[in-house]
């Protein structure tokens, strides 16, 4: 036997029967408490936290899908002039910096917002929709710092 177990075994054998029962009972109680508080409760808390994160992700995905559904219901076209100019004006009022704003004829443009908060990027696309400018293609790429990059091809409704 190992040097640690032999003295412990000798000590236990030297106890009276009554003391052995008490020490054994104390060891079982300690083992059960260690199992409950050291394994079962932390694993249950982690499981509950995973459910909360999953629920939050499902709600966020539902909000994004609802926003995309709203984007499909476009209002009638408003105003004239180049779309790139209108997009630049709306981005400036929203405090977003356009890295690229390339006109695609009078009725469309390709825009790039390099960094924005996720909510403000979707609000920007929604504001464009309310101004009669719809997104044909939108790519939102998350960054490690929690911001997003927005690439979109937009056109005026009816063009």
End-to-end separation in angstroms reads: 87 Å
Biggest sheet overview:
4 strands, antiparallel
Q: What are the segments in which pLDDT stays under 50 over at least 5 consecutive residues?
A: none
Task: Give the overall shape.
Answer: rod-shaped
| Assembly category | single chain
Secondary structure tally, helices: 4
Give the spatial strand order of the biggest sheet. 1-2-4-3
Total number of beta strands = 4
H/E series, N to C? HHHEEHEE
Fraction of residues in β-strands: 15-25%
Radius of gyration: 32 Å
The CATH architecture assignment of the largest domain turns out to be 2-Layer Sandwich
Q: What is the CATH top level name of the largest domain? A: Alpha Beta
Helix content: 55-70%
Structural class: alpha+beta
Tell me the domain tally.
2
Mean pLDDT: 89
CATH topology of the largest domain: Gyrase A, domain 2
Molecular structure report:
The protein has 159 residues and is α+β, with helices and mostly antiparallel strands. The chain has helices spanning 5-14, 17-72, 83-94, 118-130; strands at residues 100-103, 108-116, 133-142, 148-156. The protein has 2 domains: 4-73; 82-156, Gyrase A, domain 2 (2-Layer Sandwich), CATH 3.30.1360. The protein has 4 helices and 4 strands, in the order H-H-H-E-E-H-E-E. The N and C termini lie far apart (87 Å).
């Amino acid at each position: 036997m190992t040097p640690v177990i032999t003295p412990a075994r000798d000590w236990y054998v030297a106890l009276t029967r009554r003391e052995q029962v008490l020490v054994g009972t104390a060891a079982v109680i300690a083992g059960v408490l260690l199992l409950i508080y050291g394994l079962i409760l932390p694993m249950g808390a982690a499981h509950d936290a995973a459910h909360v994160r999953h629920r939050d992700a499902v709600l966020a995905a539902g909000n994004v899908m609802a926003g995309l559904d709203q984007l499909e219901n476009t209002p009638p076209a408003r105003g004239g002039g180049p779309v790139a100019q209108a997009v630049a004006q709306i981005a400036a009022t929203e405090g977003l910096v356009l890295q690229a704003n390339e006109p695609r004829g009078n009725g469309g443009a390709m825009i790039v917002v390099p960094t924005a908060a996720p909510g403000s990027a979707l609000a920007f696309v929604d504001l464009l929709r309310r101004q009669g400018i719809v997104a044909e293609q939108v790519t939102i790429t998350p960054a490690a710092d929690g911001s997003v990059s927005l690439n979109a091809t937009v056109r005026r409704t009816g063009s």
